[in-house]
Amino acid sequence: MTLLDLEKVDAGYGSARVLHDVSLRVTAGERVAILGRNGVGKTTVVNTLIGVAARRAGKVAFKGRPVSDIRAYSAARAGLSIVPQGRRIVPTLTVRENLTLGAAPGRPGPWNLEAVFGMFPILRERAETPGTAMSGGQQQMLAIGRGLMANPDLLILDEPSEGLAPVVVDELGDTLARLADRGTSILLIEQNLGLVRKVAERYYVLSKGAVVEDGHLSGLSMETLKKHVAV
After folding, report:
1. Residue 180's CATH number
2. With contact defined as beta carbons under 8 Å apart, do 38 and 192 qualify?
3. Which range marks the domain in which residue 13 is found?
4. How far is 42 from 208, CA to CA, in rounded Å?
5. 60-93 in b/e burial notation, b at 16+ Cβ within 10 A?
6. Percent of the chain with pLDDT over 70
7. What positions does the domain ABC transporter occupy (predicted)?
8. Beta-bridge partners for 33
């Protein structure tokens, strides 16, 4: 089953055109990465899905339906969870309250507070702590846990390694790999190639708002991948 399908999409903000003829696809159970330097349009792909960026041409479908009616506030109910760049933890809420905020009432699935605490034991230990009082890595766990609370069909992570120490990025990769092994469909937007190799099966490379490379990560060396990202 195809979860996310972009076909020849042009999109941008105001008069600025950012995405040019972008096509990509994520199927159920798949882990796909979007790679590229800063400013090439990676986050605009996400913003196009939730109506923050304006689509000028092309088609976007989620689970076979046009996404024109999906917005940031309704994405979770539709089965789309986004872990945003910068995490956006609500500072006035505890860890438990931040997690509860991510729940999508009426969506069945395996993820609830106990399941998230089982995946991230530190969140149970810090459940009554303000969300922003934790380390950057712990806040990223909280952001991912909040996304899982909606029992999503597709989990999108936008630059999850940003600002994290290398050892924490390694732990993040292990966490995302475990989620993938449990059948979670993942779209990973990332510049850290080590994290991409640990989590994703396929990749797309964006440059100047266009897809310039795509393929499978299996058998691809780190040096070759670096060349793809450097285009």
Report:
1. 3.40.50.300
2. no
3. 2-229
4. 10
5. bbbbeeebeebeeeebbebbbbbbbbebebeeee
6. 96
7. 1-231
8. 188, 203
The number of C-alpha atoms within 13 Å of 55 and in the hemisphere containing its C-beta is: 23
Categorize the per-residue pLDDT at 79 as very low, low, confident or very high, splitting at 50, 70 and 90. confident
The confidence band for 114, taking pLDDT boundaries of 50, 70 and 90, is very high
C-beta separation of 134 from 113 below 8 A: no
Tally the domains of the chain: 1
- Tell me the C-alpha distance between 87 and 161, whole Å: 10
Coil, strand, or helix at residue 163? coil
Residue position matching structure tokens 């630059």 = 159
Side chain identity at residue 139, one-letter code? Q
Q: Which residues contact 50 (CB under 8 A, 6 or more apart)?
A: 70, 71, 72, 75, 80, 82
Beta bridge partners of 130: 94
